[in-house]
Amino acid sequence: MLPSDHRPATLIPGGAVFPHRHLTGIAGLAPHEITFLIDEAEQWIDANRARAKSDKRLEGLTLINAFFENSTRTLLSFEIAGKRLGADVVNMGVNQSSVKKGETLIDTAVTLNAMRADVIVIRHGSSGAVQLIADKVDCPVLNAGDGSHEHPTQALLDALTIRRRRGSVAGQRVVICGDILHSRVARSNLLALTALAADVRMVAPSTLMPAGVERFGATAFTDFDAALDGADVVMMLRLQSERMNGAFIPSTREYHLRYGLTPERLARARPDALVMHPGPMNRGVEIVSSVADDPARSAITEQVETGIAVRMACLDVLTRRARGVDGWA
Ligand code: NCD
Asked: First vs last Cα of the chain: how many Å apart?
């Protein structure tokens, strides 16, 4: 039987149409829709490597990147993705916006809408803020991270990276370790990877583990060493100190001793296990440099490459309705 994450998009009733107007999260996407976006992204990896970088399918469209929270790779990769597809890209950073002057989110949404963007990418510090803006604007909205809620393009690029390096997502034992409670990356990955039939293990100190991860089909661990047994993929996450109110761990030194990924600890996983991290890394806390920089094991820079491809695919797919292509005419 074909694993659920390898259903070719052409076999899906309705062809290659992605029926959603926005991409606010992985929640609400069917497994074949997740696979469809990942399949679409594959072509852009090849195109980017071949330096065939000037596809013009988004020519004449305006992409606004509205980032109300700091970002390096996500903002840059959405900007590069939009430009490689020929869009006019406008970036609005946290320090330039009138949110600092007390503007409400609804007023910001109304303003963005009046500018008649064709697609808007939003990062915001509050969970649910992106959906709120999506409900108020006329164009597709992509969530580039909202509070501790969701970061769907990160989960898509992680799934694509795993599929390319391991051949499949289904059946892979993926250990996700770190600040699960505050991490939108953890939440979106939990939803995407379980939808694609991976064997997901979530690891955190009990203070940083949300209740109910088992409901999504994952297994919760407080013992990192035990969780690593038989792991195909080890995904490390940063402590989200900016989202913590008070102390959730005794000290970063103690945290590193129990939850830091070192070569000795990695030896408990499968010999060919893949190491991932969405960045930014806190070296010496959740991961040591000798693991993060080991080209044989680490897929961290590859995640950046698949990130551009996934964002190109999402921008393309979500603007198809407006462009009158692929069943939306
Ligand atoms: C993540 C984020 O912003 O949620 N980073 C990213 O998008 N590459 C993870 C993090 O900040 O720890």
From this structure: 35
